[in-house]
Amino acid sequence: MDESAAAPAEAEAEASSAKPERPGPPPGPEIIAVADAGDIILDVTFETSKETLRKSSKATAYAAKRPGGAPQPTLQTKVRVAYRVSQAALKKHSKYFNNLLSNSSFREAGLIAEAHKKLADKQIKPAEAGAADLPWITITDDDEATKAAGREHAFEDMLRIMHQKPPKTARVALQDAATIAILADRFDCITLVARSILNGVRWPVTTTKPYTDESGRHTDAEEILRQKVLVSLLLGNGMKLHQAARELITRGSRLWSEFQYRDESLTAAWWHLPDGMEDKTEELQYRRQCVLNTIASAQRHFLDLYCSKERQCKLGYDSSVACDSFQLGQMVKFLTSKNLLYLVDYTPASLERVPDAATVNIDELLATLKQCPNYQVDKNHTNCGLRTRLEPIVDYIRAMLSASGTSIAHADWKKRRSEVSWTMLRDGQGTGDLHEDSRTFVFTRAVANDQRLRYENAMYTDRLSKSLFTASSWDWTPEA
What we know:
The protein is an alpha/beta fold. The chain has a domain at 283-475. The chain is 45% helix and 7% strand. The chain has 19 helices and six strands. The protein is elongated, with a radius of gyration of 32 Å.
């Protein structure tokens, strides 16, 4: 190499090495002063999966166009934020923090005592100390339960509420409400948070949105519906819980399928509803099964009657076997054409004809049964068909389905679960009014003409609906 060319390079290297390096402060997280006079720092790392980030990026782009929207999440796999807070406020409103910061068995309690002792030796009050001199408590939060990015904003609102400050977002979308409710439930301050944000939750309508699109792909309808159940359950909104739980029972869930494997990617809290809804027992799923079994029992009842040797045509001298045979054929034709009955034989392949009923809409099912025509073998046989006998039964089932006891009442579920739970009755653990000898439901004329059934939530309808749907057998024509 030419020495004249190498000399400037060597001089430049010596000059750069001679420059003193400025030792700046070590890189650290952003510090948010929830309490200006806070005496501890919560150093929180929020870990978010790439799958959640991809899903959130679309929602973020849409929300950015709306004026006055919530703070947009930082789309990173790891976000570290430090919050300056008052440990007294945390201990007062959160059992989790009270145990973490006070129990000597945890390292955090020792760190706080040691740091505050050093400040006391310097005659510095913790409220007046710099953030670097305060004790730093490390917390890690992942997105397994929330499936949401930007949880640092929800966490900050939760801390603000514990410090008697209003949350930054007054009106929150359901997804954001689910996030803060799950966080508050984890840190055991759900009662306080519920009082602050409950009236600001925006509840979307899901009744008109299908579970699947025209291509058969899952929409977000069930996910939103489940979020409504979870948020109303955690925040204690009895009316919303009653409505959302009833809708979920009526519309079903893909998780309740007997033919599909559980999707392991559905780890969010609303896919595993807590407090006995789905985690410890299958209360909601079992209630749906009870309703479906009751409706199907009416179909089976009349099919068995018309297949039996007992004459169903009641026209005296004009009664005929031909009428019964005609009605049986028309009944089978109607039920199979409406996908309410499937004919299978002894070959395993025929079972493939039976579809998955996990998401069959019960309201639509009852409406279809009401479409049964009034078939007649001739002009004299006016009341021999299925419609005349089935219509009052469908009306009764629909009335019982609208009774409040079919859904979940928040207060009753919390205070007297053993009395209102259907699964406990199934397992023989309940303390309700039903006994083994009364598990057969008898549809008498008095039951069919009960005037109380004209009004939703009428007295005793809860007990009537429970006795109907949890029966072990049904007699739909005791006075025929």
